[in-house]
Design a protein that fits this description.
This protein has 302 residues and is an alpha/beta fold. The chain has helices spanning 11-18, 23-28, 35-41, 69-79, 85-96, 111-120, 140-143, 160-170, 186-195, 211-220, 240-245, 264-282; strands at 49-51, 102-104, 126-128, 152-154, 176-178, 183-184, 201-203, 208-209, 226-228, 251-253. Strands 1-2-3-4-5-7-9-10 form an 8-stranded parallel sheet, with no helix packed on it.
Length: 302
C-alpha cells in the first residue's frame, strides 16, 4: 500500500505546521520543497509571528557562534548583499497581509520601518524593539495609537515618560512591560503608576532606582504578578520595607540589588548626567549607539 505524500497533506494542517517553523525556514527552505508547500508558505497565517534575526547582514555579526550568522549569510547569498533593513522588514511584513500579532525587530531597524509596521500591522499584540534600536524609542509615541491591541512591549533606554501615557490612553489590554537597564526616578515611577495601574508583568532588571521610586511602583501597581528588579542599584535586596510591600506579588525577583553607601551619591548623579547627555545627543546627532541588553525569555514559548 502506497503511503500518503507530504504534498497531499491538507492545506489547513500544513499551514498550521508551517507557521511554527520560524522565519528562516519559512523564507528559505519551505517554499522550495514542492508547489503545495510554496502555496501554503504564502498564506498570511504563516506570518503572524515575525521574529526577525538580530542581524540581517553577516558583516554586522562579530561572534562566530552567533545563532543568526547562518541566516544572515543565506540572506546575503540569495539577495547578493543588496538587502537593507528597511527593505527586508517591509518584504516580510507584506507577507502577513496585516495579520502580524508579534514582531521582534532586527538591529539597525530604521525609523521608516517602524512607521511601516505601524501602518500595516493593526493587529499587533507584542512588540520587541530590539537590543540595538535605542533611537526608535523616540518615535514610538507617535504610533502607539495605531496598536490598540498591544499587550506587551520591550523597550530600550529612555523616552519612557513619553511612551507610557500613550499606552495607557490607547492600549486597554496592555499587561507586560520590559524596560531593563533604565534609571528610575520618582517622576518615572509616577508616570508608570498613573498610566499603567493594571500592569501585571514588569521587568526592570539591571537598572537603577531612587528607593522612593520603587516604593511608588509597589504601592501603585497593585495587580502585578511578576516584578523583576534583579541586579539593580539604589536599594538592598533584603530591604524589609520593600519585601513587605512586594509580599503580595507571586513572582518578585530582586536578587543582587544593592546600595554602595561610599559611592552611591556620585554614581547616581553620574547615571542621571549620562541619561541627560545621551538624550540630548540623540536629539541632535545621527549616531548609532551599540548598547546590549537581553530579554529573550518572552519568545521562548512562541
Amino acid at each position: 500500500m502506497e503511503g500518503r505524500k507530504w504534498e497531499d497533506l491538507n492545506k489547513d494542517i500544513l499551514v498550521n505546521v508551517l507557521r511554527r517553523v520560524g522565519m528562516e525556514s519559512l523564507l528559505l527552505d519551505v517554499p522550495f520543497v514542492c508547489k503545495s508547500w510554496y502555496k501554503a508558505s504564502r498564506e498570511p497565517q504563516c506570518w503572524e509571528h515575525l521574529i526577525f534575526p538580530s542581524y540581517i547582514k553577516p558583516d554586522d555579526i562579530w561572534e562566530e557562534e552567533n545563532p543568526d550568522k547562518g541566516f544572515a549569510e543565506r540572506l546575503a547569498m540569495k539577495y547578493q548583499e543588496n538587502l537593507s533593513a528597511y527593505a527586508f522588514v517591509k518584504f516580510i511584513v507584506n507577507h502577513s497581509c496585516g495579520n502580524a500579532t508579534i514582531i521582534k525587530l532586527p538591529a539597525g531597524c530604521p525609523e521608516e520601518a517602524l512607521e511601516y509596521i505601524a501602518n500595516e500591522c493593526p493587529k499587533l499584540k507584542i512588540l520587541d524593539v530590539g537590543s540595538y534600536n535605542i533611537l526608535i524609542n523616540a518615535i514610538i509615541p507617535k504610533f502607539i495609537s495605531k496598536w490598540k491591541n498591544l499587550e506587551m512591549l520591550k523597550l530600550g533606554k529612555f523616552y519612557l515618560k513619553e511612551i507610557l501615557p500613550q499606552i495607557g490612553l490607547y492600549c486597554n489590554n496592555f499587561i507586560w512591560l520590559s524596560a531593563p537597564y533604565n534609571y528610575f526616578e520618582k517622576d518615572d515611577a509616577s508616570a508608570l503608576v498613573a498610566s499603567l495601574p493594571k500592569l501585571e508583568y514588569l521587568d526592570l532588571h539591571g537598572g537603577g532606582f531612587e528607593k522612593e521610586a520603587l516604593l511608588m511602583i509597589l504601592q501603585g501597581c497593585k495587580q502585578l504578578v511578576h516584578l523583576d528588579v534583579r541586579q539593580c542599584f539604589g536599594f538592598h535586596d533584603d530591604d524589609a520595607e520593600i519585601l513587605e510591600l512586594a509580599s503580595h506579588i507571586p513572582v518578585f525577583m530582586c536578587e543582587g540589588s544593592m546600595v554602595v553607601p561610599e559611592i552611591e551619591p556620585a554614581s547616581l548623579q553620574d547615571r542621571r548626567l549620562d541619561h541627560e547627555l545621551f538624550c540630548d545627543k540623540i536629539n541632535h546627532d545621527d549616531c548609532v549607539y551599540d548598547l546590549n541588553f537581553d530579554f529573550d525569555d518572552l519568545f521562548e514559548d512562541i
